[in-house]
């Protein structure tokens, strides 16, 4: 395994009761107009820094945090309970609801530390579910919400259909093993070839540096408890991003969710040539550009 270092940022810590939560911050580049305070939310199978602050030789801006910091965003991310550097001592499976609780503690810390009245939030996969549930529970905290590799009811999802075969195993324990073969499966299950080998290996190194096992809670929820959020109660400008070959949700499932979102400042973007882990795909810069356009879009002058 290659040595993995995360540099150029600042670590922060907050608490959710007796649980310590790790946060990582990369500030906006000096001299660039402030574009907002952006909070990234990781998924089921990796902590925050491997997902959002990855470094791959020869691949510019593999770190989404670095790219968005260069565009003027104050960037933050956090390890949910049970992941990475955050506490893992409680005998729980760290489900989606618990992850939304983590976001409440983490965003409160960021708002106090930065003075930001509202935050921008991006969540991927189960991180998108946590972000959506957080937005539902905490109206007014977010200025805009981006949901990538999201799923609503799970109907028509080939990935979840296969995952449900292991549901008894996930229900039987709070954690599941993580190894290099598992990381490879993330990129091979939908459409092999969407990510290059160097990026996959660097991603695996970064994940396995922090975790040898991962919580089962988000898998249990996605296999047996969907839907976990109500689109009609998420009244914030929202973008839904779906990879062309992502197997976690059908297009019909996502469009039904999109249709019910009450805030008419909303977008739906299909990302060509992308499967599930969009920031680690060959077309990652396209994803950054889509998000940047949404996060910097001017608020409407006339709303009717």
UniProtKB/TrEMBL annotation:
Superkingdom of source: Bacteria
SUPFAM superfamilies: alpha/beta-Hydrolases
GO cellular component, one term: membrane
Any one GO molecular function term: hydrolase activity
Keyword Hydrolase: yes
Organism field: Ramlibacter montanisoli
Protein name: Alpha/beta fold hydrolase
Keywords, in A-Z order: Hydrolase
Domain annotation Serine aminopeptidase S33: ranges: 62-279
Pfam family, one: Hydrolase_4
């Amino acid at each position: 395994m290659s040595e993995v270092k995360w540099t150029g940022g600042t670590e922060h810590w907050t608490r959710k009761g007796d649980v310590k939560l790790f946060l990582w911050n990369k500030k906006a580049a000096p001299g660039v107009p402030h574009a907002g305070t952006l909070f990234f939310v990781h998924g089921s199978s990796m902590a925050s820094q491997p997902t959002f602050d990855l470094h791959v030789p020869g691949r510019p801006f593999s770190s989404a945090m670095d790219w968005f910091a260069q565009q003027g965003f104050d960037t933050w991310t956090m390890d949910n309970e049970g992941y990475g550097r955050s506490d893992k001592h409680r005998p729980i499976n760290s489900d989606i609801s618990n992850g939304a609780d983590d976001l409440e503690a983490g965003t409160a810390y960021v708002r106090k530390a930065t003075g930001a009245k509202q935050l921008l939030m991006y969540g991927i996969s189960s991180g998108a579910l946590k972000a959506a549930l957080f937005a539902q529970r905490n109206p007014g905290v977010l200025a805009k919400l981006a949901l990538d590799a999201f799923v609503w009811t799970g109907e028509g999802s080939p990935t979840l259909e296969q995952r449900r075969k292991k549901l008894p195993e996930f229900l039987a324990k709070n954690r599941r093993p993580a190894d290099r073969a598992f990381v490879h499966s993330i990129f091979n299950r939908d459409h092999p070839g969407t990510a290059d080998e160097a990026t996959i290996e660097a991603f695996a190194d970064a994940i396995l540096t922090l975790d040898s096992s991962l919580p089962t809670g988000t898998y249990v929820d996605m296999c047996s408890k969907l839907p976990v959020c109500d689109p009609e109660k998420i009244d914030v400008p929202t973008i839904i991003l779906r990879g062309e070959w992502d197997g976690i949700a059908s297009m019909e499932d996502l469009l039904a969710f999109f249709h019910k979102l009450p805030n008419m400042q909303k977008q739906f973007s299909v990302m060509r040539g992308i499967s599930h882990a969009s920031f680690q795909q060959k077309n990652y810069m396209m994803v950054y550009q889509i998000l940047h356009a949404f996060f910097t879009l001017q608020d409407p002058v006339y709303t009717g």
